[in-house]
């Protein structure tokens, strides 16, 4: 269970890195955490050994091999699959208490606008936050809808990971 969580965290950090929401060093730290949790492959060891100064240069080359050796999918930056993985990773950050509902809706809207189908509901909810004083809904109602959407996205991610 600990290894599955570490693998999922590494994959999430990779997705967030691909959209600029995590730095390369965050990916390296997730690789270190994966090693500590009991995952161990040659490419993962090399990735985890990167210094802060090396990370920006080496992560783009090392990350795909590390994820492949772990049996995890790598989504290249800018790919549709990578964007969808990033939306799910952001949703899990909300569910883990790292983001507020407003922050999640804003970040998703900022990165993907209304162009990415899995992000559309969150982008619309971000628009609702912007019109709170004119709308009929309360912040608590919108927050609840954001949390529900994050839960739906995270559940979808769990079934996608099980299929890999």
Task: Give a structural overview.
- The chain is mainly α and 164 residues long.
- Helices cover 73% and strands 0% of the residues.
- It has two domains: 2-69, no CATH class; 80-163, no CATH class.
- It has helices at residues 2-18, 24-37, 42-48, 52-69, 80-95, 101-112, 120-130, 139-163.
- Helix 1 (2-18) packs antiparallel against helix 2 and helix 6 (101-112) packs across helix 8.
- Mean pLDDT is 92; it is low at 159-164.
Keyword list:
single chain; 164 residues; 8 helices; 73% helix; 0% strand; disordered C terminus
Record the SSE blueprint:
Elements: H1 2-18, H2 24-37, H3 42-48, H4 52-69, H5 80-95, H6 101-112, H7 120-130, H8 139-163
Helix pairs in contact: 1-2, 1-5, 2-3, 2-4, 3-4, 5-6, 5-8, 6-7, 6-8, 7-8
Distance between the termini: 17 Å
Seen as an oligomer or otherwise, the chain set is: single chain
Q: Count the domains.
A: 2
Topology pattern, helix = H, strand = E:
HHHHHHHH
Give the structure's gist in a few sentences.
The protein is mainly α.
């Amino acid at each position: 269970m600990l290894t599955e969580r570490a693998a999922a965290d590494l994959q999430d950090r990779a997705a967030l890195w691909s959209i600029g929401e995590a730095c390369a060093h965050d990916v390296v730290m997730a690789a270190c955490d994966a090693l500590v949790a009991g995952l161990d492959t040659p490419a993962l060891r090399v990735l985890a050994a990167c210094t802060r100064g090396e990370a920006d240069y080496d992560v783009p080359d090392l990350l795909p091999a590390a994820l492949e050796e772990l049996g995890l999918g790598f989504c290249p930056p800018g790919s549709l699959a990578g964007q969808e993985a990033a939306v799910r990773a952001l949703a899990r950050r909300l569910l883990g208490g790292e983001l507020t509902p407003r922050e999640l809706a804003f970040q998703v809207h900022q990165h993907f606008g209304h162009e990415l189908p899995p992000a559309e509901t969150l982008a619309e909810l971000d628009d609702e936050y912007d019109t709170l004083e004119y709308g009929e809904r309360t912040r608590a109602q919108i927050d609840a809808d954001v949390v529900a959407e994050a839960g739906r996205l995270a559940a979808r991610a769990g079934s996608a990971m099980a299929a890999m």
